[in-house]
Specification:
Cofactor: FAD
Bound molecules: NADPH dihydro-nicotinamide-adenine-dinucleotide phosphate, uridine-diphosphate-2(N-acetylglucosaminyl) butyric acid
GO cellular component, one term: cytosol
Distance between the termini: 23 Å
Order of helices and strands: HEEHEEEEEHEHEEEHEEHEEHEHEEEHE
Structural class: alpha+beta
Strand order of the largest sheet: 6-7-14-11-13-12
GO molecular function: FAD binding; UDP-N-acetylmuramate dehydrogenase activity
Strand content: 25-35%
Protein name: UDP-N-acetylenolpyruvoylglucosamine reductase
CATH class of the largest domain: Alpha Beta
Oligomer: single chain
Keywords: Cell cycle, Cell division, Cell shape, Cell wall biogenesis/degradation, Cytoplasm, FAD, Flavoprotein, NADP, Oxidoreductase, Peptidoglycan synthesis
Shape: globular
Number of strands: 20
Radius of gyration: 20 Å
Helix content: 25-40%
Number of domains: 3
Length: about 350
């Protein structure tokens, strides 16, 4: 399918104002790095998400999901295909009876923590300073200060192949919607592994017990499901106590982390039994630069963009840090930041 025909079909689904061609990803990532996305697409409803995904699969067009862009390194040459941005149109936060909070994939962790505080619900304070969305938090099992997303989550609303919903161990997952229009959600080409040709995508509330969360990983990540939202179970507490905990964590974060400079948070995962920042500091890498990418002098676990760093600069710096740390300590550092190719 030629590009113009494909982009016309996406424009028909989401409306012209929600399809941006050649949109610089640097404007949508906290690293402030990244060339143009061929098509940045902002669906307005779950149905539109499903329709765009189906259209991409049918046409063999690559698809990426972007939340707040706080944990990605986007390539300098840009990204071909569709970058699906789930932010403002999926940013609702609803406080439900029984301490439940239901948030859209595009709601920021900060917005969810604020809503919980206002409702006198505790448990999400740990995430109040994590600069991402609920979608990113579910995929990565976001964690900070001894808390992690999996601790408080009841279910994750996802777009999954119909066969997975039917037989893939969804347990008591509610099958809430089926997208059946041939041109939009079914009859998609290139079935995923284990998926029957021509089947559709369905929206399912995946129970936490089926989410296979680990340290910065999840079933949603491994299976490539789009996260549409999540429901959290929080507990009653006084708003003053909740606010005090959020303020304390914000202070600790600002004191230790280089929040004033663009970055994508921790560059590397914590290797078992070690702290990445300490290993990097001990290997003498603090302040090390490639171009305008620098190992932060405030927290060695962060690569920061001190001017006009490129993705190539960051990748070269990551490789050099990995080499020096391996040489100094024998430990291999694995990137936590998603390196988009
Ligand atoms: N502890 C901390 O202080 C920090 C933690 N982080 C972590 O990174 C997360 C980043 O969130 P955010 O900035 O919104 O994410 P990003 O926009 O940075 O996207 C990160 C990755 O998550 C996937 N993704 C994002 N949203 C969705 C979705 N709705 N459905 C499916 N996949 C999705 C994408 O996968 P794909 O590439 O496969 O398309 C993408 O590569 C945070 O929630 C947190 O876990 C980040 C910074 C600091
Ligand atoms: C920033 C992120 O998450 C952060 C999260 O905010 C904080 C707070 O809970 O704990 C993790 O950082 P971290 O492992 O660097 O934790 P910190 O408490 O800052 O540091 C751990 C230890 O390393 C030492 N340290 C840190 C930095 C440094 O330059 N030198 C050093 O010696 C600290 O003194 C401390 O003893 C998460 N990172 C990972 C990879 O797990 C992110 O995911 O992007």
């Amino acid at each position: 399918m030629v590009d113009a025909t494909f982009s016309d079909s996406i424009r028909t689904i989401v409306g012209a104002e929600n399809l941006l061609a050649d949109e610089p990803l640097a404007a949508h990532t906290t690293f402030r790095i990244g060339g143009p996305a061929q098509w940045l697409v902002r669906p307005r409803t779950e149905y539109e998400v499903a329709a765009v995904c189906a259209a991409c699969r049918q046409a063999g067009v690559p698809l990426r999901i972007l939340g707040a862009g706080s944990n990605v390194l986007a390539p300098d040459e840009g990204l071909p295909g569709v970058t699906l941005q789930l932010t403002d149109n999926f940013a609702t936060v609803d406080v439900l009876p029984g301490g439940l909070v239901r948030a859209g994939a595009g709601a920021t962790n900060a917005a969810v923590a604020e809503a919980a505080w206002e409702a006198g619900l505790a448990g999400y304070e740990f995430a109040s300073g994590i600069p991402g969305t609920i979608g990113g938090a579910a995929i990565m099992n976001a964690g900070a200060y001894e808390g992690q997303f999996s601790d408080v989550t009841v279910s994750v609303r996802c777009l999954v192949p119909a066969s997975t919903a039917a037989t893939g161990g969804m347990g008591a997952a509610e099958r809430v919607e089926q997208c059946e229009t041939a041109a939009e959600c079914t009859g998609v080409g290139g079935p995923a592994e284990g998926e029957k040709q021509g089947e559709g995508l369905v929206v399912v509330d995946v129970p936490a017990s089926e989410a296979a969360w680990g340290y910065r990983t999840s079933r949603m990540m491994h299976e490539g499901w789009v996260v549409l939202g999540a429901t959290l179970q929080l507990r009653p507490d006084s708003p003053a106590a909740i606010r005090a905990r959020m303020d304390d964590l914000a202070r600790r974060r600002a004191e230790k982390q280089p929040l004033e400079v663009p970055s994508a948070g921790s560059t590397f995962k914590r290797p078992e039994g070690y702290f990445a920042g300490k290993l990097i500091q001990d290997a003498g890498c603090q302040g090390l630069c490639v171009g305008d990418a620098q190992v932060s002098t405030k927290h060695a676990g962060f690569v920061v963009n001190i001017g006009n760093a490129t993705a190539a600069d960051v990748l070269a710096l990551i490789a050099e840090v990995q080499r020096r740390v391996r040489e100094a300590s024998g430990v291999s550092l694995a990137p936590e930041v998603r390196l988009w190719q």
